[in-house]
Structure formats: C-alpha cells, structure tokens
Amino acid sequence: SKKRGLSLEDKREKMLQIFYESQDFFLLKELEKLGPKKGVITQSVKDVVQSLVDDDLASKDKIGTSVYFWSLPSCAGNQLRNVYRKLEGDLQNRKKRLAELVEQCDALKKGREESNEREEALGELKAIEQKYNELKDEMGQYADNDPAAFEAMKKAIEVAHAAANRWTDNIFTLRQWCSNNFPQAKEQLEHLYNEVGITDDFDYLELPATVPLGPVGDQMLAGNP
C-alpha cells in the first residue's frame, strides 16, 4: 500500500527533533538536507521551519549575510508557559465579566417578580394596547372625512372649475372672432364646431351647491390665475 505522508504537526515535531538533538544553529540549506532524514521532504522544510518560528517554537536571526535557525528545549517550555499565562488571564477576565452579567441580571429582575399585582398590570397594559389599535383602525376608516382633506379637495375642484370656464370663455371669444371675420364660412364653421363637441347646449359649468365658490375660484373666473 502507498505510504501516507506526514501531517503538518508530524513535520513540525520531526524538525524540532533535529534542533533538540543537536542544540546547534542551522542555515536553511542545512535543514533542507537534514529534513528528509526525518521524513520531511526538502520542499516542505522552509514552510515547516517558518511555522515553528511564527509560533515561537524556533528562533531565527541574521548574522552577517546568513540567516540562522535554532531551537532549544527551553524555548518550547517558555512558549508553553506564555500560552498558559495568556489563557489564564483570559479565563479570569471572562469570570469577571460573567459575574458582572449575573449581577446585572439580578438587578433587572428586581421589581419584576411574579405577583398578582404584576399580572393585573400586564393585563391592563395589554387591554390598553388592544384598545389603541382598535381606535387607530377606526381613525383610518374616517380618513376620507378628514376636514383638512375635504378642504383640499374643495379647493382642487374650485381650481378645475375656474380653469374649465376660462377655456369656455376663450372658445366663445374664438367663435365670435371667426363669425366676424369669416361670415361666408358660417355653415362650415358650425359643422366644425359640432364635430369637436361645441354644440348649441355648450355653456359654462356650474358648481354644485355643496361646493361653494371660494376666493381661488373667484380670482380665476375674474381672469387672475
């Protein structure tokens, strides 16, 4: 069967063995020669050693033009002790935060203990909220009868009414002008008027009694837009 390759952790352990057994300083090219003897292929040595450096399990330094790597058993011990201290500090901080949250939770519970008075108050609150929603829905049904909305609609009707009658006045003026200037074309003009809807019953519009003419309509009928 095909032999399974080493995992990253296995490779790290093998490279650490090289450092610990010799307790010496190495150039990268030297480690690349020693790695295969431990089962770490040459192409992986650089990345594995760099991962050890990143985790403070190995050290490197430049001396002159060369970069040396080394690791002593004490390095691993120091690194583990640093990790332990950090984890211990994190644990204490989280315990303190937990105690603060428990204290806040207890403070928020005060005054909210289950009781008959609390149940009654909650019931009244729910009833008030329900009544509020009902009144809100009822107000929505009467929105069309809102005085402000009615007044706005009345003004819009007045403006439209005044504009329509202003154009009616313009049409009567134009008909009179055509009659005065083209008396010989009276029949043709009458035929044209009927085609476009200007018949004998064509006249000014009147507002219903429920929409009395206001200042806006008065001004527009007087020729003031």
TrEMBL record:
A biological process term (GO) from this entry: reciprocal meiotic recombination
UniProt subcellular location: Nucleus
Keyword set includes Magnesium: no
Gene Ontology annotations for the cellular component aspect, listed alphabetically: nucleus
Main location: nucleus
Residue ranges occupied by any Mnd1 HTH domain in the UniProt entry: 15-73
InterPro entries: LZ3wCH, Mnd1, Mnd1_HTH
Residues forming coiled coils: 84-145
Family annotation (Gene3D superfamilies): 1.10.287.1490
Keywords, ordered alphabetically: Coiled coil, DNA recombination, Meiosis, Nucleus
Domain Leucine zipper with capping helix: 149-205
GO function term, MF aspect, one: double-stranded DNA binding
PANTHER family, per the entry: MEIOTIC NUCLEAR DIVISION PROTEIN 1 HOMOLOG
Family under the similarity heading: Belongs to the MND1 family.
Stated name of the protein: Meiotic nuclear division protein 1 homolog
